[in-house]
Write a structure and sequence with these properties.
- The complex is a heterotrimer.
- Chain A has one domain.
- In chain A, helix 3 runs antiparallel to helix 8.
- By secondary structure, chain A is α/β, with parallel strands linked by helices.
- In chain A, a hairpin with a 2-residue loop joins strand 3 and strand 4.
- The radius of gyration of chain A is 22 Å and the shape is globular.
- In chain A, strands 4-3-7-9-12-14-17-20-22-24 form a ten-stranded mixed sheet, covered by helices on one side.
- Chain B is of the alpha/beta class.
- Chain B has a domain of 168 residues: Rossmann fold (3-Layer(aba) Sandwich).
- In chain B, the strands form three sheets. Chain B has a six-stranded mixed sheet, sandwiched between helices.
- The radius of gyration of chain B is 18 Å and the shape is globular.
- The C terminus of chain B is likely disordered.
- In chain C, strands 3, 4, 6, 7, 9, 10, 12, 14, 16, 18 and 20 form an eleven-stranded mixed sheet that branches.
- Chain C is α/β, with parallel strands linked by helices.
- Chain C has eight helices and 21 strands.
- Chain C has a domain of 261 residues.
- Classes of the chains: A alpha/beta, B alpha/beta, C alpha/beta.
- Strand 23 of chain A pairs antiparallel with strand 20 of chain C, so a sheet runs across the interface.
Chain lengths: 478, 256, 424
């Protein structure tokens, strides 16, 4: 039975092609003059240059953390190029017609048509290719509702007060090693502002692609939901198949003002490396939201890619009655390593949080949930419920659960449960007896295991996530 | 004569939802009153409001027990004053032994009445008798309160507490639900053994069946938060045979 | 490094102070001392010590030389018939030669030549090396007993090892228990005291195939009685271990429990409870190593934390690659009684085998409203009801204890302690 499962799990990474496009790429290396050069290229205002330099100085004093359950080679931060942009971006295209056709074809291959008539119905997309945003769709329609959705480099120019007020307000520059690095060198990313009382008329989406060799991607996303507003935001990622490890160190900041709702969904499918662990993306991301009174932040993630993932989308539940949610599916196979989870920091009264984390380990991979639930002294009647379930496929992988729980309030209730299980021979037998091939059977069982999380995804994404899981599982059964 | 329990124009509810909407009920010593009615009529709510459960708010009206204002008292003060609520779904309290629990309850009432507390020995004797009376094995005294008890055992445990506490008014909330005939008879025998000219009962039930064993003096129909009809035992029989339709109610009763 | 540790190392290096230097233990001691010198003194950044401060030990001068105390209290467990062995002032005070022991049971001092056959291959071999206080104890323990239970011997009388905290004294005593095949024994480790002192008592248990061990550790150290101890179990095939831990807290009190399965089809139950008042701190760290298939473990840890007290719990279950068909469960439940109390809990699963069933849970709760309502409707005063409910949570574990006098003694002692704690 196990052999059949084994055979069923081996499939190529479908987004692994390279786009042949001329690029302006910085020489590898990081120092103050690289930052100044980037800053000049991006037309940064003076305050932002200072901000970057101060982050850089902080970063220099920090050490790369080693506490996560990861085995990785030391990263040479001087061997990475910190900026790469398609040449055609120099004179920024004013419309889609001016975008390099090669680039458009890249996204068509990935299933993301950029032409207005073909785009994903009802989803506005911002496309980030290596270090720059190449196109943002549906901007006019969004503008009618007062919604701002644009590359962050544009927001810095057009809405400097807002950016200055909120940038680094949720994830401070010196928060951790990678947030400091990102703050010094972020190249582009998305900016969203939803005005008071507005329910964003469509899903917003950013699609990230790393193309250039030896390039890091350091994007920065800032989302502000003003009082009483609502937003659903999607994020997708891919990269070509290369033998070298590439670094992705993003920062995402969410600000949910009073009575607002932010739903942030990610399907992360960076190149995971080959079956022997060669190549793949190092995905070190800091994502955090601050929830003010009566607001709600939901993180949903489907993590199937990257050689190494180190990611803890978190909520600071500052306002009374605020709600934080984290729904996660992390699938690892081959030699992938994932260490992911969340932090729920309960500060306000009656704050609520829910954590549902599903880990699936196959091959020789290691998959860990690491989370923190903290009840502050003023978190009267706060509640947390956490459920972490692991599914092991084969006997060479690992599944781990490291919850940290701290409470300082006697009226707060915290519940944590974790279980582990396998795809049993009985389940497989039943499915096969009913005529399903082993691959389909595993995929069905795994999909069932993940159902609680998939139902939190927006419709288009849920289908995509299911398919992605199926593809990722091919060849990893065993 | 002072009524034992007197409820006048009682309006109450939970979380701004009105459930009782002007309920009147008078009960004299020694009487047995049955309350029947469709689901959601407010039968259990009445028990919770009378006993003072948190979250239930009285917006209008009054309720007195032996002339004392019931609604002004704490939950435990009402119990000590003689109100006993037998729960429909008694909660399990692991680790707290049934024996310790009942001894503390009985002694709380005795202290309030200015009586000597029972010693452990004295109480054990009483508890064993009560335990036998409701036909529970004696090791149920040592087990945690309702911990791992079956539905029927929980109900018998409620009646055992009633026997030991000697309350003046007993509110039995669907004590018959989920019981087979033998258990039903045991429970009814326990209740009947406690009938006396000083003690009154309110029996909430869906079914005539229980009333075959515990003969009521009065039967009331509770619907939409009010008593809409009162009568003698024959009213219960009529409902058993005809449903609530003749009262102009369109409720469909679920079958047991 | 701390002054205290420097003193300890200096002491360990003095041949004159080491009564055991020439015996079977000497080699092990030197090896542990070497490792101790290589270890970094833990700080708050050391994960195992992140929530427990060592300041109260660091800031004192070590006194590893035993004090000769001639009279002491004898903490009784009423109605319990046990073989009592006292450690007072860091010295073994009971003359073992006066005992008439049941057949199959032998008890030796560490210095006894006869101990070597049993202990040489086991001493410091069951306890993992990562515990720095374990290495300290290896290097300087000079009082201790080796308990040997022969094959097939069923020892009905419990053996009680009593550790008293005496003012200004350190107790680095050591226990090694060998339970041979098909044997059964009950060991009670009973530590108590509040005076300014340090205790690092470590015990190691080798439970052979088909053997049974009932174990109790009462770490009733409070106030200035500092304690960092360990209980380490090696589990043979088809054996059974039942361990009950009861702890109060002091300025520093920490207990490490390690269970390592070497044989299949064994079963280990651990019930631990802590009841912390005032400014007490207690830290319990357990690690269950399922290294072989078909093992079962069930760990329940219940704690009540009142006033300004701080509890820290870490429970790790590690299922090794080969440990298929393991069943492992761990549950930690906590009740905070005050706004100044603190609980940190970290149950961990680390799983490398796919055909296993593991679950852990941790809850931090307030009192269940429905249960409270039920008690109030029976006329029980609110303050009394709160005590009954909270204590029910501990009583659940006490009720599992096999020995009647211990159950009665603990019920009485813990409920008295609980009543003195403020319920807000």
């Amino acid at each position: 039975m196990t052999d059949e499962i084994d055979q069923a799990l081996d499939k190529k990474y479908e987004a692994g092609f390279v786009t042949d496009i001329e690029s302006d790429t910085f020489e590898p290396g990081l120092n103050e003059s690289v930052i100044r050069r980037l800053s000049k290229l991006k037309n940064d205002p003076e305050w932002l240059l200072e901000w970057r330099l101060s982050a850089y100085n902080t970063w220099l004093k920090m050490e790369m953390p080693d506490w996560a359950n990861l085995g990785i080679d030391e990263i040479d931060y001087q061997a990475i190029s910190y900026y790469s942009a398609p040449k055609s971006m120099k004179d920024k295209p004013q419309s889609l017609d001016e975008v390099d056709p090669e680039l458009i074809r890249t996204y068509e291959k990935l299933g993301i048509p950029l032409h207005e008539q073909e785009r994903l119905a009802g989803v506005a997309v911002d496309i980030v290719f290596d270090s720059v945003s190449v196109v943002t769709t549906f901007r006019d329609k969004l503008a009618e509702a007062g919604v701002i959705f644009c590359p962050i480099s544009e927001a810095i120019e057009k809405y400097p007060d807002m950016v200055k007020k909120y940038l680094g307000s949720v994830v401070p520059r010196g928060d951790n090693f990678f947030s400091a690095l990102n703050s010094a060198m972020f190249t582009d990313g998305s900016f969203v502002y939803i005005p008071k009382g507005v329910k964003c008329p469509m899903e917003l989406s950013t699609y990230f692609r790393i193309n250039e060799l030896n390039t890091g991607q350091f994007e920065r996303t800032l989302i502000i939901a003003d009082e009483g507003s609502e937003l659903s935001y999607l994020e997708g990622c891919t990269a070509p198949q290369r033998d070298e490890n590439q670094l992705h160190a993003a920062v995402v900041e969410l600000v949910a003002l009073d009575d607002s709702k932010i739903k942030y969904s990610t399907v992360q499918n960076w190149y995971p490396g080959d079956e022997n662990g060669k190549g793949g993306i190092y995905n070190f991301v800091t994502k955090r939201g601050i929830a003010h009174t009566n607001s709600r932040i939901s993180w949903t993630q489907v993590e199937t890619g990257s050689a190494v993932t180190w990611k803890y989308p978190s909520c600071i539940l500052k306002g009374d009655n605020s709600v934080g949610e984290f729904y996660s599916v992390a699938l690892t196979r081959g030699c992938q390593q994932a260490d992911t989870g969340t932090k729920m920091i309960h500060l306000g009264k009656n704050t609520r949080s829910t954590i549902i984390a599903k880990g699936i380990s196959a091959g020789r991979s290691n998959n860990a949930y690491r989370g923190l639930v903290k009840m502050g002294p003023k978190a009267e009647n706060a509640r947390n419920f956490t459920e972490c379930d692991s599914l092991l496929i084969g006997d060479k992988c690992g599944a781990h659960t490291y919850p940290y729980i701290e409470s300082r309030n006697p009226t707060a209730i915290v519940e944590h449960e974790a279980t582990t299980s396998k795809v049993s021979d009985e389940q497989m037998f039943l499915c096969q007896q009913r005529g399903l091939d082993p691959e389909k059977a595993v995929s069905m069982i795994v999909n069932g295991f993940c159902k609680e999380v998939f139902k939190e995804l927006p419709m288009e994404f849920a289908v995509e996530a299911g398919k992605l899981l199926e593809i990722s599982l091919e060849g990893s059964v065993g | 004569m002072v009524n034992m329990l007197s409820i006048k124009n009682l309006h109450a509810g939970i979380e701004e939802k009105n459930i009782l909407k002007g309920l009147d009920l008078t009960i004299n010593p020694g009487e047995v009153h049955a309350i029947m009615g469709p689901n959601g009529a407010g039968k259990s709510t009445l028990g919770y409001v009378l006993s003072g459960r948190d979250g239930y708010e009285v917006t209008e009206g009054e309720a007195t027990l032996n002339g004392q204002d019931l609604l002004d008292m704490e939950i435990e003060e009402r119990a000590v004053a003689g109100l006993f609520l037998a729960f429909q779904y008694p909660v399990e309290i692991p680790g707290v032994s049934n024996m310790v629990f009942m001894k503390e309850s009985v002694n709380a009432a005795r202290i309030a009445r200015g009586q000597e507390e029972y010693t452990a020995g004295e109480f054990l004797k009483l508890a064993k008798e009560a335990c036998k009376q409701v036909q529970l094995p004696l090791d149920f005294l040592k087990r945690g309160v309702n911990e791992g008890f079956s539905g029927g055992e929980k109900k018998r445990n409620e009646i055992m507490q009633m026997i030991l506490l000697q309350p003046s008014i007993c509110f039995l909330d669907e004590t018959d639900s989920g019981l087979d005939v033998d258990a039903l008879k045991t429970v009814a025998d326990g209740v009947n053994s406690q009938r006396s000219p000083e003690r009154s009962f309110v029996v909430v039930t869906h079914y005539q069946r229980l009333l075959d064993y515990i003969k009521p003096d009065f039967v009331h129909i509770l619907a939409d938060g009010k008593i809409i009809k009162s009568g003698d035992a024959s009213l219960a029989l009529k409902i058993e045979n005809e449903g609530y339709g003749f009262l102009g109610l369109n409720y469909v009763e679920e079958k047991a | 490094m701390s002054q205290w540790l420097e003193d300890v190392i200096a002491h360990a290096e003095q041949p004159a102070s080491n009564e055991l230097a020439a015996t079977w233990l000497a080699e092990q001691r030197n090896s542990s001392l070497k490792k101790l010198k290589e270890q970094k003194w833990p700080t708050r950044r050391t994960e195992a010590w992140a929530n427990t401060s060592l300041v109260s030990v660091e800031s004192r001068n070590a006194k590893p030389t035993p004090a000769n105390i001639t009279s002491w209290d004898k903490p009784a467990i009423p109605g319990l018939d046990s073989i009592d062995i006292y450690f007072v002032g860091g010295q073994l005070k009971t003359d073992l030669s006066t005992f008439t022991l049941p057949e199959g049971l032998s008890i030796y001092t560490l210095q006894d030549e006869k101990a070597e056959a049993v202990a040489a291959s086991r001493f410091a071999q069951i306890k993992p090396e990562r515990h720095i206080f374990g290495l300290i104890n290896d290097a300087i323990a000079n009082s201790g007993v080796v308990i040997d239970v022969a094959e097939n011997a069923i020892i009905d009388t419990p053996i009680r090892l009593i550790h008293l905290a005496n003012d200004g004294v350190e107790n680095h005593s050591r226990v090694l228990v060998n339970v041979a095949k098909h044997a059964k024994v009950t060991i009670i480790e009973h530590g108590v005291g509040e005076e300014d002192s340090v205790n690092t008592s470590m015990s190691e248990f080798d439970v052979a195939d088909n053997a049974t061990l009932y174990h109790y550790r009462f770490a009733l150290f409070t106030q200035k009685a500092l304690h960092v101890g360990g209980c380490h179990f090696q589990v043979g095939a088809s054996s059974y271990i039942n361990s009950t831990i009861v702890a109060f807290g002091s300025d520093l009190s920490k207990l490490n429990i390690d269970v390592n399965y070497t044989g299949e089809h064994s079963n280990v139950d651990i019930n631990a409870m802590y009841l912390l008042a005032e400014g007490e701190a207690f830290d319990l760290q357990s690690t269950i190593e399922h290294a072989v298939p078909n093992g079962t473990s069930n760990e329940k840890v219940h704690g009540i934390i009142g006033d300004r007290a701080r509890a820290n719990f870490g429970g790790r279950i590690h299922i090794h690659r080969d440990a298929q068909k393991t069943l492992a469960q761990l549950n930690n439940r906590n009740l905070l009684l005050s706004r100044r109390a603190l609980i940190n809990t970290k149950p961990e699963l680390e799983i490398y085998a796919d055909d296993v069933r593991c679950a852990h849970g941790a809850t931090i709760a307030e009192i269940d409203d429905e249960s409270l309502y039920y008690l109030l409707t029976r006329g029980i005063p609110r303050s009394q009801a709160l005590i009954m409910l909270n204590f029910g949570f501990i009583q659940e574990l006490i009720n599992d204890i096999e020995i009647d006098p211990i159950r009665a003694w603990l019920t009485d002692m813990l409920s008295t302690r609980f009543k003195s704690m403020e319920v807000s």
